[in-house]
Structure formats: C-alpha cells, structure tokens
Amino acid sequence: MAFPTHLRLFEMGARDGLQNEPGAVIDTAIKIELINRLSECGLRHIEAASFVSPKWVPQMGDAAAVMNGINRKAGVTYSALTPNLQGLEGAIAAGADEVAVFGAASEAFTQKNINCSISESLERFAPVIERAQACNIRVRGYVSTVMGCPYEGETDPAQVAAVSRELLDMGCYEISLGDTIGTGTPLKAKQMLEAVSKQVPIEKLAAHFHDTYGQALANLYAVIEEGIAVIDASVAGLGGCPYAKGASGNVATEDVLYMLNGLGIDTGVDLEKLAQTGHWITAQLGRTSGSKVALAIGCQ
Ligand code: HMG
Ligand code: MG
C-alpha cells in the first residue's frame, strides 16, 4: 500500500512525558511554556494535561492551572486525560478541547493503572463519553499494553481488538494503540494491527509506541505501511508510565518527524524548532534530549 501524503502527529510530551518525571513536581510555568513552544512548532494536536487523582500521579496535579495558563493557538486541539466523571468535569471547566479515556488489553495493568477491571473501566467510561459528547467534546480512547504487559507478559491481539471495538462502539472517535512497555517488534505490530483493523477501521486507529527496546520507529514504519496515519510521540522522548516500571518514553517526536520527512509525508511540523524545544525542556529537567535526531542537529 502507498504511504499517506499527510500524517497527523499527536504530541504527548506535556502529558505522557512529564507525568513520569521522578523527583520534584515540575513548575506549572515550565509546563505552560513547553506547550506554548510545541504549538509554535506547528503541532496541531497536543495532549496538555491529565485530570487524574493527584495522589496517583502528583506530576499532573496542576492540570487545571496548566490548561488555564497556556496561549490557545488557533487551530490547535489541546486535549486531556479523563479517567472518570470527576476528571471530565475538571477538564471541561479548564476548557479542554478534547478528552481521552484510557483502558488496557490486560486485566492486571488496568487494575494497577486505574484500580478496576477491564469491564468496570468500560462501565466507568460510558458516562464520561456520554457527558463529553453532550458538551460537544470529542473523546479519544487509549488501549494500553497492546503488544505486551509488564504483569501478564504476552498480549493476545484478539483482546486488543475487543477492547478497541468496545471503545469505538461507546463513541470514541479514535483509538490509540499503546505499546506501553515498548516490547513490540515490527511483525508483532503488523499482526496486532491486522487483528484490530478487522474490528475498527484503520482510519480510526493511532499508534502510540514507547521506545523502551528501541523498536518504536521500526514498529511505526511497519504500521504506516499498513495504513496508520496518526502517530503519538513525545518531544525529546520524554516520559514513560508510572504504572509500568522501567518503561521509557514515547518515541521522540523529532525522530518520527525526521523519518516522515524522509518518506515525503507531510505533518506541518518544523523539525528544527521542535528539536530546539526538546533541548530546552530537557535542559529544564537537567539532562540531554532523548531524541537522536535532536542530538544530531545539535543545540543552537
Ligand atoms: P480510585 O482510588 O479507585 O478512585 O482511583 P476513587 O474514585 O475511589 O477516588 C479516590 C480519591 O481520588 C478520592 O479522593 C477522589 O476524590 C480522588 P479522597 O476522597 O481520597 O480525597 N479522585 C480524583 N481526584 C482528582 N481527579 C480525578 C479523581 N478521581 C478520583 N479524576 C483513579 C481511580 C482512576 C482516579 C486513579 O486510579 C487514577 O487517577 N489513575 C491514573 C493513573 C494514570 O494517570 N496513569 C498514567 C496515564 S495512562 C498512560 O500513561 C498510558 C497511555 O499513555 C497509553 C500507553 O502508553 O499505553 C495513555
Ligand atoms: Mg503512553
């Protein structure tokens, strides 16, 4: 199949990235500046915050202040995670353009991450999706552990397909497939996608791959070949998941962008500016960028 001419990048750095920073809680002003800089790079979809319990994820405790503090650039969608109605009400009050519910294909991970079973999670998401839709807010659905679980090992693609289908039927406009611990390889990614795309049209699927084993770019190439045209990525490769020990961040947005540029796939994002943004945020965090491309381009 031919590659798409255009692909949508969904920037995860401010949420999936910063949620997992160890140590002191990052200043709200730094988060706000990161999001503003990301929007100046041409990114049109930015996950900005997470309205989860601050006892569970202290780094996201200032979600409302972050959402209220950013410069809303026209044409940019600022989204937030909302695990339940309480989170949704917070996100609505803070003016989130879009929200996301997040489940998983593995029972054990669901329990550790959101403290309930898969079926309970879907029951919990139903009123969240209903209320968001009543407010004309689109809901994205995440499915974690699509290529492996830190507690259960292998994931059955049929289970990923079943949870994805449920979320779609409940009203999610798009399902983002999370390789939470980055254990996937290209063939596995294709096989997983083959199973899911029998249940959910491929144009409603996104790839959300973490790079723990250095496979994310190869896995992305494999699923783009199959028709995926939405990719989640994190500037400088920030992040991980607090409930998946050892998981490193999403694939670096700069690295994905460099690959897409090479394939002639348009994203509307400025690589140079993005690399500088990655250098800036990692300097704030006291380390170097996790993007190989950004390191190669260098810091100006
Ligand atoms: P729970 O303890 O079962 O919830 O947590 P609860 O309803 O029993 O409430 C307990 C307390 O939490 C109460 O406060 C609530 O008010 C409060 P208390 O009375 O004890 O003072 N609470 C909240 N506070 C603020 N905002 C809320 C909220 N909800 C309850 N929304 C819950 C259940 C889902 C809340 C909890 O498990 C949680 O917050 N989990 C979040 C975990 C998380 O954020 N994980 C990382 C994001 S997922 C991810 O990174 C994967 C992804 O990137 C894809 C991939 O890579 O695979 C998306
Ligand atoms: Mg993630």
TrEMBL record:
Reactions catalysed: (3S)-3-hydroxy-3-methylglutaryl-CoA = acetoacetate + acetyl-CoA
Keyword check for Aminoacyl-tRNA synthetase: no
Pathway per the UniProt entry: Metabolic intermediate metabolism; (S)-3-hydroxy-3-methylglutaryl-CoA degradation; acetoacetate from (S)-3-hydroxy-3-methylglutaryl-CoA: step 1/1
GO biological process: ketone body biosynthetic process; L-leucine catabolic process
Single GO MF annotation: metal ion binding
Top EC category: lyase
Protein EC: 4.1.3.4
Alphabetized InterPro entries for the sequence: Aldolase_TIM, HMG_CoA_lyase_AS, HMGL, PYR_CT
This protein's name: hydroxymethylglutaryl-CoA lyase
